[in-house]
Amino acid sequence: MLRTYLLPFLVVAYLGIQCASANNKHDSDKTSIFHEFARFARREDTFRKSPLELFLRTDPQGEWFKKVLKDLKAENHWNSTMSGEMSLFSSALVEGTWYNISNNGTCNCCDVNNPMDPFNVHLSMTGRPGEVVVSWNTAQKPSPTEACVFVSNTSGSQLGSFCSSDIRTFSLGSGFSPYLCSNYSGYATHVKISSLKPGETYMYTIRGTSKNKTFQFMAPYGNTSSTTKLAFFTDIGTKGGQPVIDALKQRMSEFDYVILPGDQSYSDGYHTTFDAYMTLFEDVIASKPYMVSTGNHEGPWNFTYVRNNFYWPVNESGAAPDALWYSIDEGPVHFVFMNYENYFSYPLGEWEMTQPAPLSTFPGQLEWLENDLQKFAKRRESNPNLWLIMMAHRPLTCNISGKSCDVFGPELEKEVFPLMYQYKADMYWCGHVHAYERVNPINNVTRTQCSNCVQQNGSLYLKPPYPVQVMNGIAGRAVADNNYFTPGISYPDYAQVRIDAINYPFGGYALVQVNDAVLNFTLYNTSGTVLDSFRIEK
Ligand SMILES: *[C@@H]1O[C@H](CO)[C@@H](O)[C@H](O)[C@H]1NC(C)=O
Ligand SMILES: *[C@@H]1O[C@H](CO)[C@@H](O)[C@H](O)[C@H]1NC(C)=O
Ligand SMILES: *[C@@H]1O[C@H](CO)[C@@H](O)[C@H](O)[C@H]1NC(C)=O
Ligand SMILES: *[C@@H]1O[C@H](CO)[C@@H](O)[C@H](O)[C@H]1NC(C)=O
Ligand SMILES: *[C@@H]1O[C@H](CO)[C@@H](O)[C@H](O)[C@H]1NC(C)=O
Ligand SMILES: *[C@@H]1O[C@H](CO)[C@@H](O)[C@H](O)[C@H]1NC(C)=O
Ligand SMILES: *[C@@H]1O[C@H](CO)[C@@H](O)[C@H](O)[C@H]1NC(C)=O
Ligand SMILES: *[C@@H]1O[C@H](CO)[C@@H](O)[C@H](O)[C@H]1NC(C)=O
Ligand SMILES: *[C@@H]1O[C@H](CO)[C@@H](O)[C@H](O)[C@H]1NC(C)=O
Ligand SMILES: *[C@@H]1O[C@H](CO)[C@@H](O)[C@H](O)[C@H]1NC(C)=O
Ligand SMILES: *[C@@H]1O[C@H](CO)[C@@H](O)[C@H](O)[C@H]1NC(C)=O
Ligand SMILES: *[C@@H]1O[C@H](CO)[C@@H](O)[C@H](O)[C@H]1NC(C)=O
Fold it and tell me: Taking every annotated instance into account, which residue ranges of this chain make up the domain Calcineurin-like phosphoesterase (predicted)?
């Protein structure tokens, strides 16, 4: 439900017109405490020792780990067979602990003493012109008059308030897990702001108990613009992701929104780590819509935290209310977010990361996808300059030795390729493997590279007949990830660019600009160096 109090002129004005586990073959020279800890925690014999032995350190990080584990040990009988769970737990600790997470086993988001103070503020797009959704968390459930945002223009003139009854909460499992976050309490409110003028800048304010928060944003264009610019990356940690987040803060004028098909924060159900990540990112994503989808690290507890904290335009794109897939239009691009993460199967427990499964595993997804692509194809008939970018967390064609590329990619593509090729997708975006790989357009049956479409040393695709695939999984984790590509072996000619994982404090993100004729894609590392750059010309 949405109640709007927009001034009439504004309405008239407009209506008139989401992992590969690290496979460390070599230890990094730059050892630091979190690298060491992560390596240590992953060693097989680690789990046969008393957990306290792992933390015989004198530095503050070690002290903190020690305290957490001591508390846990006091409360629970340590079960040394739970190594998978321990591994996720340690990953969340490594990513989150630098932000001084204080936690005593219960988990309240936000500030219980100032129960209506807004936290984790972020925006989403619905794909509709002039419409945006504001989302935030509070410790207490907002009343109907508190679940509101106040919108003004940039001179501070009030335009009206928007309120919502879309207020969600959740519980996080029971029993042993999750160590850091049982008995969750907190609320996520989602308020839709409609009928703004696409491309105009506005301000919004959320009123809290001890503080109000105000951010500036641009009303999305939806399909009413022939250009668009965005940031794209996947696999971003909390501590590990901070360098990318800091780099984006310096380039706010260069993108209008952020696209992340899976794996953010590495909280794995440890909600305080997710909160730490969102706090770090808030200055960016409260101003720029943040469109996420599912990765294996969102999988624990059946995607609870993403389902509740993010507004996905499932209804707007014709999907079921609990669908983990949706599409949006922005500028000349139709973006399709798909899901392979198997939320039906948690054999060891709901704390687990998800495993991949074909699209058709999830009731309604394939039908939705065909329908969505058909509708898009009709629009493209009358406007051939539109672009189609399909994405999901995991790679299809890729050349890292390991299950993601050797086993799962070929399985997953059996359903995706026929549709991607039939509907002439321009690109496929993914991540999951913590490396970057750019795959030239290949024929889906013969797997031969398009003839003559790869030009200028691979920096230009001229009228490519097939999609360009980009795996961009290097946004950064605090744990070391490296040496994915095997030196000295030959890769197929279509594997145009390969970049190994970039270890903390560096990571990579792409800035993408599109108009009706050209798509520019540039990959940067956090020091601003261009790592890859190419364009597609229609
Ligand atoms: C330890 O965990 C395993 C796997 O979850 C379970 O099968 C086993 O019963 C547990 N052992 C104890 C002593 O709780
Ligand atoms: C972390 O918490 C401790 C104890 O509450 C405090 O002394 C310290 O200043 C905090 N550190 C940071 C970086 O906030
Ligand atoms: C845990 O800490 C919160 C505040 O952070 C407090 O409200 C709660 O009572 C504490 N719970 C326990 C069991 O100590
Ligand atoms: C969580 O809630 C359950 C039941 O509601 C209660 O038994 C348990 O003590 C609570 N745990 C914590 C850490 O507050
Ligand atoms: C904001 O609205 C006021 C009142 O309608 C108007 O005078 C002012 O020019 C507007 N400012 C901007 C930046 O549009
Ligand atoms: C928040 O804004 C409202 C409206 O301007 C104001 O009345 C209130 O005092 C503000 N609250 C705080 C904590 O500043
Ligand atoms: C935008 O999408 C709407 C709804 O699909 C359609 O009616 C309209 O013609 C489209 N506008 C443009 C400029 O493509
Ligand atoms: C879903 O979309 C339809 C049509 O676009 C609309 O009538 C309906 O109110 C929407 N439902 C929700 C829950 O937003
Ligand atoms: C996870 O959620 C989906 C969608 O609501 C549901 O169909 C599925 O059964 C759930 N999985 C488990 C293991 O409960
Ligand atoms: C690269 O991928 C192709 C096609 O799947 C495969 O035949 C080849 O063995 C792979 N090469 C490496 C080095 O992984
Ligand atoms: C290959 O692409 C064509 C469209 O170009 C499509 O009809 C066909 O189903 C695809 N086959 C496979 C095996 O992907
Ligand atoms: C793409 O990059 C080229 C070279 O920097 C630039 O001239 C062109 O305007 C860019 N196109 C778009 C759509 O941003």
Answer: 229-436
Map tokens 């001034």 to a residue.
7
Going from the Cα of 1 to the center of ligand 8, the distance in angstroms, rounded, reads 9
For residue 7, what are the CA distances in angstroms to 1, 14, 145, 162, 319?
Answer: 19, 12, 18, 12, 32
Query: From the alpha carbon of 182, which atom of ligand 4 is closest?
Result: 13
* pLDDT of 136 strictly over 70: yes
E strands along 362-517, which residues?
A: 387-391, 427-430, 436-439, 454-455, 460-462, 468-472, 495-499, 508-514
Is the predicted pLDDT of residue 261 greater than 70, yes or no?
Answer: yes
DSSP state, 476? B
Radius of gyration of the chain (CA): 23
With tokens 């040990």, the residue in question is 73
Instruction: Kindly report which listed range (102-111, 192-201, 254-263, 456-465) carries the lowest average pLDDT score.
Output: 102-111
Are residues 349 and 242 in contact, defined by beta-carbon separation less than 8 angstroms?
no
State the angle between helix axes of 409-422 and 365-382 in degrees (0 to 180), rounded to the nearest 10: 30
For domain 228-537, which architecture applies?
4-Layer Sandwich (3.60)
Which amino acid residue places its CA nearest to atom 3 of ligand 1? Answer: 81
Q: Which of 68, 100, 104, 271 to mutate to test the pocket of ligand 3 (most atoms within 8 A of CB)?
A: 104
Residue 63: nearest ligand to its CA? 2
Give me 203's structure tokens: 């301000």
Count of other CB atoms within 10 angstroms of residue 157? 9
Residue keyed to tokens 């976050």: 181
Percentage, residues of the chain above pLDDT 90: 68
Cβ 224 under 6 angstroms from ligand 7: yes
Q: Of all atoms in ligand 9, which is nearest to the CA of residue 346?
A: 13
CB of 80 sitting under 6 A from ligand 1: no
Hey, where are the domains in the chain? 2-82, 228-537
Separation of alpha carbons 243 and 487, rounded Å: 28
- The mean pLDDT of the chain is 84
196-249 per-position pLDDT tens digit? 999 999 999 999 999 999 999 999 999 999 999 999 999 999 988 999 999 999
Number of Cβ atoms within 10 Å of the Cβ of 165: 13
Mutation to probe ligand 11, out of 412, 421, 426, 446 (largest number of atoms < 8 A from CB): 421
Q: What's the CA-to-centroid distance between 129 and ligand 7, angstroms? A: 9
Dihedral of CA atoms 485, 490, 496, 502 in degrees, nearest 10, equals 10
207 lines ligand 6 (CB under 6 A): yes
Q: How many CB atoms lie within 10 A of CB 467?
A: 27
Instruction: Note the pLDDT of residue 81.
Output: 47
pTM, two decimal places: 0.87
Left if phi > 0, otherwise alpha if psi is -120 to 50, otherwise beta: which for 293? beta
